[in-house]
Amino acid sequence: MATTQRDYYEILGLARNATENDIKKAFRRLARELHPDVSDAPDAHDRFREVAEAYEVLSKPETREVYDRYGHAGLRSGGFTPSQFDLGNLADIFSVFFGDDLFGGAGRGRPRARGADVAAQVEIELVEAATGTAREVPIRTSVSCGRCSGSGAEPGTSPTRCPQCEGSGYLQHVSRSAFGQFVRTQPCTRCGGAGTIVETPCERCAGSGRVVEERSLRVEIPPGIHDGQRIRLSGEGHAGALGGRSGDLFVLVRVAPDERFVREGDDILSTVDLTVTQAALGAEVTVPTLEGDVALRFEPGTQPGEIRVLRGRGMPVLQGFGRGDHRVLVNVRVPRRLTDEQRRLFEELEQRSTQDNYRDDEGFFDKLRSVFR
Fold first, then answer.
1. Domains of the chain (ranges plus CATH)?
2. Rounded to an integer, what distance in angstroms lies between the CA atom of residue 123 and that of residue 130?
3. Which residues are registered as beta bridge partners of 267?
4. Going by DSSP bridges, is the β-strand pair 196-197/160-161 parallel, antiparallel, or unpaired?
5. Beta partners for 173?
6. What one-character DSSP code corresponds to residue 168?
7. What distance in Å separates the CA atoms of residue 271 and residue 311, rounded to the nearest whole number?
8. Which of 142, 191, 248, 349 has the fewest other C-beta atoms within 10 Å?
9. How many whole angstroms separate alpha carbon 205 and alpha carbon 152?
10. How many angstroms from the chain centroid is the CA of residue 154?
11. What's the count of helices (H) and strands (E) in the chain, helices before strands?
C-alpha cells in the first residue's frame, strides 16, 4: 500500500516539528473531508486509511520517535502493524481517538470500544541484541468469553433491545436557541451505549463478555535493537468491549550491560591489556567480540591509547542495512611489584635506552585525532 512508502508528515500536511495538537487537528480536518457523507471521491477510503495510519504512528511518542529516526523500515523491524480502520464506522474511530463524536450523529450502531493496551518487559543480553532473539512473554489480559461468545448473555438466552434508546445506543437531546437548533448526543444511560440489555448474564463473565486469562506470547526481537525500545504486537492487548478490536501489547526491551563491551550507537568499544614487554616486543592477543574471540596481532612498539578498528564487527543497524564497527583500545599494564632481579633488568634497560628508542612516529594531536576517528 502507499502508506508504506509515503511520508506520514506529508500525508497529514505537517512539518516534522509539529506538536501533538497540530497532529490531532490535521487528522480531524482530513477525516471530515474523507467521510462518505461529505466526499464522493473514489479514493476517499484508501486516503482515509493513509491518514489514520499516519495519525496512529505520529500521535504516540514511542512510535513517532522510531519513525523519526529510522523511517518505515524501523517501524517494521520493531513489529509495528497498522490498525484496520473502517471508513463507514468513522464515528467510532473518533470516539477511540478523541473521546467524542465527530459528526454529532446517532444511530450508527453499537459503540465498539477498543480494548486497553498491555505493557510487558523483557531483558536480553547484548550479544542477543546483536543477533536477534525471541522471548516467551507471560501476560494477563481480558479475552472474549468463550461461554457466551462475548455477548454477555447466558447460553440459550439473548440480549434484548434497550427500550430507552430503541437499540441505537444513543440518546439525543434537541434544544433551540436564537442561533438555531442544537442536537446533543450521548450514550444511553440505561444500556451504557450497547443498545441491548442482558437480562440473564453469563455465569462465567457475569455479563461483561470478557474474562481474564494468563497466556504466553512469543516475541521476536530484531537484531540491532537498543535498550529501552518497545516492540508493538497489534491486537494482543485486552479484548475490546462489545466486539471492539483488542488493544496492543507493548514490550519494553532492556539490554543488560556487558562488562566486556560498551555500546555507542551501532559501534562497540572494548579494551585489551598488554604488558610492557608485549607492547614493546609485539604480541598476538585474543580479544572478545560479539561474534566470538578474535586473535589480533600487535606490532612491536604498540603505544597505550592506540585504537584497533574491526570494521563491520559492531551492532547491526536496526533497519537491517550494514553494521557498526568494533573499536579496541590498547591499555598497557605497568608492573606494580618487581623482584630484585626484575628491577635490575629494568634499570639496565633504562641505562641502555636512547632517545631514538622513544621517538614518536606521530605527534600527540595526530594520536588524538586517530582516537576520535
1. 1-103 (1.10.287.110), 117-154+198-257 (2.60.260.20), 262-372 (2.60.260.20)
2. 14
3. 264
4. antiparallel
5. 184
6. S
7. 16
8. 349
9. 7
10. 40
11. 9, 15
Beta bridge partners of 308: 328
Joined together, the cell numbers standing for residue 199 give: 437480562
CA–CA distance, 211 with 206 (Å, rounded to integer): 9
C-alpha cell at 371: 582516537
Residues 6+ apart with CB under 8 A from 10: none
Q: Which residues contact 324 (CB under 8 A, 6 or more apart)?
A: 265, 266, 267, 268, 312, 314, 315, 317
Q: Which three cell numbers stand for residue 161?
A: 433491545
Please provide the DSSP assignment of 170-196 as one string. EEEEEEEETTEEEEEEEE-TTTTTSSE
β-pair partners for 295: 286
How remote is the C-alpha of 19 from its chain's centroid?
Answer: 20
C-alpha cell at 319: 533497519
DSSP code at position 335: P
With b meaning 16 or more CB within 10 Å and e meaning fewer, what string describes 211-243?
A: beeeeebebebbbbbeeebbbbbbebbbbbbbe
Locus of grid cell 507471560: 138
Task: Output the tens digit of pLDDT for each of the chain's 373 residues.
Answer: 344 468 889 989 999 899 988 988 888 888 777 765 555 667 777 788 888 888 888 888 878 888 888 888 777 766 666 665 545 445 445 544 554 444 444 444 455 577 888 999 999 999 999 999 999 999 998 888 888 888 888 898 888 888 888 888 788 777 665 555 666 778 888 887 778 888 888 888 888 888 888 999 999 999 999 999 999 998 898 888 766 788 899 999 999 999 999 999 999 999 999 999 999 999 999 999 999 999 999 999 999 999 999 999 999 998 778 999 999 999 999 998 989 998 999 888 888 878 777 777 655 555 555 555 5
Q: Fill in the amino acid letter for 100.
A: D
